[in-house]
């Protein structure tokens, strides 16, 4: 029921890909991708993904961290939904959103 409610606002948006950041974003992200019939893209800590990756470093309230995503994860113009189940400082979400926007549309994120 929770996943259905999370997915409902995006059903008519024709989402192509759902992105989930390690590891909490995998829990709901994969389920939302399934409901929306979309692909799922994991964003992981450095060194965890096979194949060529792109790295994104970002600031946290207590330091810095980094995430990686497959270099070929997106195609220009695809609609991407980012799912995470925790928002503390927002650093991880902001880093993933900025990275996705630059790769998919060459600009800042859009809001639905």
Write the SSE topology.
Layout: H1 2-7, E1 17-21, H2 24-35, E2 39-43, E3 53-60, E4 63-70, E5 80-83, H3 91-104
Parallel strand pairs: 1-2, 1-5
Antiparallel strand pairs: 3-4
Task: Describe the model.
The chain is α/β, with parallel strands linked by helices and 112 residues long. It has helices at 2-7, 24-35, 91-104; strands at residues 17-21, 39-43, 53-60, 63-70, 80-83. The model has no long low-confidence stretch (mean pLDDT 85).
Spatial strand arrangement across the major sheet: 2-1-5
Straight-line N-to-C gap: 22 Å
Low-confidence spans: pLDDT under 50, at least 5 residues? none
Q: H/E element string?
A: HEHEEEEH
The helix count comes to 3
User: What structural category arises from helix and sheet content?
Assistant: alpha/beta
What proportion strand? Answer: 25-35%
Shape: globular
Mean pLDDT: 85
Largest sheet: 3 strands, parallel
Helix content: 25-40%
Q: Radius of gyration over alpha carbons?
A: 13 Å
How many DSSP-defined strands? 5
Q: Concise description?
A:
With 112 residues, this protein is α/β, with parallel strands linked by helices.
Notable characteristics:
single chain, 112 residues, alpha/beta, two-stranded antiparallel sheet, 27% strand, globular
């Amino acid at each position: 029921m929770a996943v259905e409610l999370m997915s409902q606002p995006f059903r008519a948006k024709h989402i192509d890909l759902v992105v989930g950041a390690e590891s909490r974003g995998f829990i709901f992200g994969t389920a939302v991708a399934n409901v929306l019939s979309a692909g799922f893209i994991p964003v992981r800590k450095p060194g965890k993904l096979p194949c060529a990756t792109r790295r994104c470093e970002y600031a946290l309230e207590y330091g810095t961290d980094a995430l990686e995503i497959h270099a070929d994860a997106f195609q220009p113009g695809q609609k991407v939904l980012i799912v995470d189940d925790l928002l503390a400082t927002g650093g991880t979400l902001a880093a993933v959103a900025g990275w996705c926007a630059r790769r998919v549309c060459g600009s800042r994120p859009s809001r639905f």
